């Protein structure tokens, strides 16, 4: 922006009429500000300096409260070509004084300031010189000779023989002492201000570290870890981090650490936070937050998907809860059910028809889940459109191939897969149907009651997973249900698998830990 000097009768400009830079060697300076929020001494000095500049310029538009930003003072009006430091009040360039276009402010001279500086330097040299401690030698000179040979107490004047110099010297000696006292006071005030700023800086750093979302903010605070991630402890969170660190992208340009990448992802799964909000929390862009979430989900899926596994029959029987043994023996292998997640409405008519659920009256994705009698998730299918029936999902998801001869499967009435399960030598147990009768007989009622008593656990596990990870309760956007590049699975499928694996890492809600 072109600058113009605001001093009366000064035509200095930084650019010509065509907007080209004028190489005249001049600099332009804004009027000093009043630092009213600083300590009292600095505030008073800067206030007087601002008033001195306004008085020197003598423009009607300039007031103490208002100085237009385009009104500046050029270097012609200073002895050294620039303003002095604001705390050097005795410097002739503390305020502009040359070529002001009026006579109300007299031009300052540098002679007195130079002499003051010279005397201060001589005093400092005398104080720093070591005093030789030697025994006094006898001196036989007369007192008159001592006076003649003594060095002068004050340095020789620039213009000896003038009375004005002697007056300035005597008045200057008092000024030196006054300046020394003022400088000592100023140093003390500065030290106090520096100490205050250091303490304030330390407090702000401590507060910022508490608010920052990193290891230090969650360490030794399992309740905060459980709220933000769904995991029961900080040690378990660090265990997950150590497992996935080798696969996380490393780059010096990334602003987030590996811990923050994992924390961002788990916070989105746990709290269902919008991408924009997460970006503000971690001080990154929205696109970066979205990319970090997708990358970390892929890594978590690759490392945690083995936690959702089908255990061997001997392992299941060794830890079978007694209530299953009393009701069905020790052959119960899995309890299955389906749950649906809401998604956005697709634009394609065929996709609309495939994803519309008559049961939910919304567009959904359906998943088949299976749990062991201990409450551990042992099977999770890929996503199917909400229109697909429970039988279709079960027979085409690979669940039947996981069964072995002699296994017992517990399911709801909607799973009409008895023939498919029987083909592999397994048994399906579902609640009894009335089949045209007005009511069930006593035996069917008792079996249905026993089955409902244990089958409810799969619904409890589904409810636990959805309460831990609120992203499963929201409407999923269509970008999550599109197959990933080069894969058959969608991002939503990976999210569901990760949520199942993280749920398995938490204490079971079916089998209570023994005290």
TrEMBL record:
Lineage: Eukaryota, Metazoa, Chordata, Craniata, Vertebrata
Coiled coil: 187-214
Family matches, as PANTHER family: SPINDLE AND KINETOCHORE ASSOCIATED COMPLEX SUBUNIT 3, THAP DOMAIN PROTEIN
Low complexity composition bias: residue spans: 121-134
Official protein name in the record: THAP-type domain-containing protein
Domain of life of the organism encoding this protein: Eukaryota
Organism: Merluccius polli (Benguela hake)
GO MF term list: DNA binding; zinc ion binding
Region feature (Disordered): 110-176
Cofactor (UniProt): a divalent metal cation
Keywords: Coiled coil, DNA-binding, Metal-binding, Zinc, Zinc-finger
InterPro entries tied to this protein: HARBI1_dom, THAP_Znf, Transposase_HTH_dom
Keyword Calcium assigned: no
Domain THAP-type: 1-99
One Pfam family of this chain: DDE_Tnp_4
């Amino acid at each position: 922006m072109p600058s113009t000097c605001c001093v009366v009768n000064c035509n200095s400009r930084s650019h010509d009429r065509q907007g080209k830079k004028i190489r005249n060697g001049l600099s332009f300076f804004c009027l000093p500000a009043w630092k009213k929020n600083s300590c009292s001494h600095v505030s008073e000095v800067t206030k007087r300096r601002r008033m001195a500049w306004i008085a020197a310029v003598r423009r009607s538009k300039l007031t103490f409260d208002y100085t237009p930003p385009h009104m500046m003072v050029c270097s012609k009006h200073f002895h050294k070509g620039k303003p002095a430091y604001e705390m050097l009040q005795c410097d002739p360039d503390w305020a502009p004084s040359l070529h002001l276009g009026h006579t109300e402010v007299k031009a300052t001279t540098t002679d007195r300031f130079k002499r003051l500086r010279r005397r201060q330097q001589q005093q400092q040299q005398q104080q720093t010189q070591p005093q030789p401690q030697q025994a006094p030698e006898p001196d036989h000179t007369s007192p008159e000779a001592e006076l003649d040979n003594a060095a002068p107490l004050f340095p020789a004047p620039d213009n000896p023989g003038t009375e004005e110099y002697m007056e300035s010297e005597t008045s200057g000696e008092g000024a030196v002492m006054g300046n020394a006292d003022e400088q000592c006071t100023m140093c003390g005030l500065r030290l106090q201000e520096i100490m205050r700023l250091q303490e304030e800086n330390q407090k702000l750093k401590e507060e910022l570290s508490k608010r920052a979302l990193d290891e230090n903010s969650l360490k030794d605070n399992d309740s905060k870890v459980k709220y933000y991630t769904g995991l029961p402890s900080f040690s378990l969170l660090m265990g997950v981090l150590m497992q996935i660190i080798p696969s996380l992208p490393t780059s010096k340009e990334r602003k987030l650490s590996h811990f923050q990448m994992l924390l961002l992802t788990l916070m989105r799964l746990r709290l269902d936070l919008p991408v924009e909000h997460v970006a503000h929390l971690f001080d990154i862009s929205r696109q970066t937050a979205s990319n970090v979430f997708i990358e970390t989900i892929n890594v978590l899926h690759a490392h945690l998907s083995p936690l959702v596994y089908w255990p061997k029959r001997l392992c299941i029987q060794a830890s079978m809860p007694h209530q299953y043994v009393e009701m069905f023996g020790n052959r119960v292998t899995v309890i299955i059910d389906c749950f649906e997640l809401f998604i956005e409405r697709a634009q394609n008519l065929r996709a609309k028809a495939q994803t519309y659920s008559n049961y939910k009256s919304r567009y959904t994705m359906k998943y088949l889940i299976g749990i062991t009698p201990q409450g551990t998730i042992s099977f999770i299918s890929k996503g199917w459109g909400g229109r697909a029936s429970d039988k279709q999902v079960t027979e085409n998801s690979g669940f039947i191939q996981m069964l072995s001869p002699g296994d017992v499967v517990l399911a709801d009435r909607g799973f009409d897969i008895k023939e498919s399960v029987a083909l592999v030598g397994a048994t399906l147990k579902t609640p009894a149907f009335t089949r045209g009768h007005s009511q069930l007989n006593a035996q069917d009622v008792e079996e249905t009651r026993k089955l409902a008593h244990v089958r409810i656990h799969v619904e409890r596990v589904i409810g636990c997973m959805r309460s831990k990870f609120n992203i499963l309760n929201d409407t999923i956007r269509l970008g999550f249900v599109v197959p990933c590049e080069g894969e058959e699975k969608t991002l939503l499928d990976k999210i569901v698998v990760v949520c199942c694996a993280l749920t398995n890492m938490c204490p079971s809600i079916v089998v209570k830990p023994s005290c």
